[in-house]
Amino acid sequence: MESLFGDQYDNKDEKSNLFADIILPVPIPKMFTYKIPRNLAESIGIGFRVIVQFGKKKILTGIIGRVHQKPPTSYDAKPILDLLDNHATVNPIQIRFWAWMAEYYCCHIGEVMNAALPSGLKLSSESKIQLNPTFDPDTSPYPLDEREELLLQALANKEEMSYEDCEAVLGIKSIHGILKSLVIKEAIIVFEQVKEKYSPKVESRIRFSHEHVKDKKLLEALFNEIAGKPKQEEILLKYLQEVPVYKKPELNQKGLEKKVISDAGLSASSLKTLIKNGVLEEFKIIISRFEEEEGSNEEIVLSSEQEEAFQQIKKEFEDKNTVLLHGITGSGKTELYITLIKEVLAGGSQVLLLLPEIALTTHMVGRLRQVFGSSMGVYHSKYSDNERVEVWNGVLSGKLSFVVGVRSSIFLPFDSLGMVIIDEEHEPSYKQFDPAPRFQARDAGIMLSWLHQSKTLLGSATPSFETFHNAKTGKYGYVSLEKRFGEAQLPDYYLADILVDKKKNLLKLDFTRLMREKIQEALNNQEQVLIFQNRRGYAPYISCEDCGWIPECEHCDVSLTYHQFGEEMRCHYCGFKEKVPHACSACGSNKLSAVGLGTERIEESLSLLFPEARVARMDLDTTRSKYGYQRLLEDFGSGNVDILVGTQMITKGLDFDRVTVVGIMDADRILYFPDFRAGERAFQQITQVAGRAGRRDKKGSVIIQTRKPEQAIFGQIISGDYKSFYLQEMGERQRFFYPPFVKIIKITTRHKDYKTAEKSARYLHNLMGDIQVKKILLGPEKGLIGKIKNQYIFESIVKLDRTGNAQAHFKQELLHILEEMQAHKDFRGVRFVVDVDPY
DNA sequence: AGCACGCCGACT
DNA sequence: GTCGGCGTGCTC
């Protein structure tokens, strides 16, 4: 592997001519070559963090991607300014991983770096100004104008000011000229301030000054001395009580957290005096942001089914790198994972377990923590940056050999992965949409695993078709785990026909009679209910009953969603908000009605239908805060809520014994999504949410409301017949050229002017047509949403042959085309986005 | 992406 | 007349 980058220490005598290709977090498709100064040559290597100047003044953190001796021919390389650490922050495998990702997903390696490194590890500079100490306004030969005076005054009582501060002081946008003039007049100095963003958590502690613990007599003397000062004595006694240095003098080294003294209500000023007089000393240590916790080291006992699956997995791994574990909900995958993880860790390798975002808040992590204690790292998107840096460093130092995390945890600096486990592998949230790199963490995880010569286990109750196809064709191993753990039974399904009930006048506030009866039954039995509707807000739009007018977003091509909470109309694409109109803007009629079903409305309807029930709602709007989701879950878990309404958030990881009824408000909405994956997703979503119904002792009920109960997919979902559903859908996919039979690349063209957007998309489309590769080219078509944030959107879809190097060739050509187009003035300001394997 | 340099409108 | 708008070109 080393040879990929050249052996940088080949010729030690010529180290003065060393150059480094550096990855910088900028969206420019190349690395940048800098000169390695003599004094750094010995201590530098691939993956080291360095500081370089980029452009006229910007200072950036870069990562050494390659070291070589070839001086650039067309320009003068700038020197590396400094080295940030005495070790590599990124290992060679990661650099290869980044390079692969940039190439595969058609983005720049700098963008990958940006996504990979927690921002705490990327420092950058900010321009600041300060007063020139030699400047004296009275003797200065240069006259100052009003604004310059103003700025100097503002600066007079400050150490420094940022450009933003200056703008604020002067109240104008362009301060450059003024600053320049002040520099020429030698009144100020402009400098770059580099800020290290990561700050370790520091704890203040106290202990006896050295000589006092050397022998007991000294301590006794000390107490005699201090006897007249009760407050100080109290503090010393408290210290001795917490840290028995009489018995074990070595304990003094670690001291006592300073906070303990103030928490005990003892005098802070007396403590200060003790420190001032040299009796105690204060010192600081760096502590972890994560609590220390012992693992339980318990013996995991697998059921016979689990044990069998476990053995099968191991057997499959003998000749396959990737294995799919097809295990139905509640089959106890967690225990299986734990057993596997333990085994890999015992072998001295690292393990990465990927989970979808919300699953990270649930009991699975708690269970893992119980077993692995703080040797397990958790990498969460809601973590602060400092916390992320600590996980990063934990993996780097070897302290954390096992990490559970969301999709971005594939970027952690593992150096010897033994296994990557991707749970709920079918989850769409593994795909990153925006910004680049638009990677699929499941696929990237398999690649990462391959780079480590490690194994990948994919787990799902409803595998993605891509994965299942790979398993069927023998590319992946396949193990199924069919029995529900602990004798829990599969739920009963009921199809409730919305149209029939409507005709019979049995539909009340969008609830069919069957649904209402089942809910009532559960309530009577003190059981809980989940209601699923994948749409937030009150109603997706409101409409004028007289003329059909619908309020739309000013910036996007969508109707505004009515949110009862806060009484406003909101755009779910750009965040635009406005007041709810009282009359139609087109005809003035005041007959405006809310159309369609959102979670808010369902919540309201439930309160009306079941006034005695406690109803709660879980969607993006109620879980925005860091612990919003967890709080709602706890409320529900503790039985403070009878009915929980929610979006797809409720479909995952909610394992509560008392849920016996799950209602799906509008299955058709999931099914008729204009996307080739709609069927697959419907199957997955409905199965997932249904899996929440009924546990151990009680069979659950799942009520699916639909307008077309005769559709085959329902029968397949109900009988859990994933395979026949799969076969049927795959027939379609093959006929109409959809993945996994082809590779899809989506190219989006965006511009604020409709005509320009359309013209650019056409032009690009034609050029793509000329690429000599077997392909199907569709479009360019106006986006599903024609305009978002005032940008008109066009899309082209390319379907590529999976075999050979068609993909690689096409991508390469495409990037050339885009580069050229972007340089052309006709397409100035046009944004092109390439999405490989889009969702 | 930033951030410079460079050429045109609306204010003193 | 200048200030200040932003178009366009480059970054090792």
From TrEMBL:
Its EC number is 5.6.2.4. Residues 579-733 form the Helicase C-terminal domain. It comes from the Bacteria. Binds 2 zinc ions per subunit. It catalyses: Couples ATP hydrolysis with the unwinding of duplex DNA by translocating in the 3'-5' direction; ATP + H2O = ADP + phosphate + H(+). The keyword Cell membrane does not apply. Zn(2+) 2 binds at residues 553, 556, 571, 574. Residues 314-481 form the Helicase ATP-binding domain. InterPro entries: DEAD/DEAH_box_helicase_dom, Helicase_ATP-bd, Helicase_C-like, P-loop_NTPase, PriA, PriA_3primeBD, PriA_3primeBD_sf, PriA_C. Keywords: ATP-binding, DNA replication, DNA-binding, Helicase, Hydrolase, Isomerase, Metal-binding, Nucleotide-binding, Primosome, Zinc. Initiates the restart of stalled replication forks, which reloads the replicative helicase on sites other than the origin of replication. Recognizes and binds to abandoned replication forks and remodels them to uncover a helicase loading site. Promotes assembly of the primosome at these replication forks. HAMAP family: PriA (MF_00983). This is Replication restart protein PriA. The gene is priA.
